[in-house]
Amino acid sequence: REISPVNDLIVYNKLKQIIADFRPDIVHTHAAKAGMLGRRAAFSMKVPVVVHTFHGHVFHSYFNQITTATFIQIEKALARRTTRIIAISELQKKELTETFRIAPSEKFSVIPLGFDLDRFGRDTEEKRKRFRERYGIPDDVVAVGIVGRMVPIKNHSFFINAFSELKKQVNKKVVAVIVGDGDLKPSTDEYARKKGLITGSRYNDKEKTDVIFTSWIRDVDRVYAGLDIATLTSKNEGTPVSIIEALASGKPVVSTDVGGVRDVIEHGKTGFVASDEMTFAGYLKEMIENPQKAAVLGNNGKESVKQRYSYTRLVSDVAALYAELLSQGQSRSGKPLFSFF
User: What predicted TM-score, i.e. pTM, was given to this entire model?
Assistant: First the structure.
């Protein structure tokens, strides 16, 4: 979120009022700006336990060096007063503690994200049919998709380049499906056309559409049901939610090798990670030419995320952490904090 001194001050004062009214023993914040305002409000109101979750970070590939250094210093100052910091993967914890030195390792707990993944496995054939009918994609066309905001960090030009290379290497009909919207949509469309790709909002068999731009689609479970392969091309990523959702749908995935991707994708077992466009295109080709292998990867991924990223596991992990932190101090009433439970 953009910094707005006036609006941020209003929010900060409202948060302090909410804390004064409810007198919580724990305040748990998420993300960068909300985490900064929420923790400062909690500190000023002397909340006994303050927890913060990093859902990724903005410490590289987002801003210039001066802005990035400023954000790092702010996070370090906040971390000194935060009771416990949650990283959503071991890799993220290592990055935050060793690369950026936000706080010492003992101040962190690792709790992976959790989601309601059941919907991604329900009525998949019907969802696939409806999605493909909506965008005119025939059954014999392999749909390779990417879901996300069309902003620089998501690196859609990498996706276009890899897909363009893929088109040269396979004989099967393939179409790229870009789901999402943002400031870079017009320039991405233009870039694809300059690469010799035919773009549109639906597949046209006569024109042999190469790239479909769908804009935002609320029901992403329908999207993944309609795709054959899912991708992610980000320059930086915390826990890649789109990849977790694709795997929950039983789809094979290919991703750039960034952030927490390897915490989700087991290379060669549930999908592939690649650092350059040619390798990326090669993995796409491998799955298109070997659908049996692609199916195995998809099934492996589905079982993996179902076990590791369910919301019931998340609730259990956070409740256990709260109990641990509450048991270490006194509540506002003077009673042991674990009496909250």
Answer: 0.78
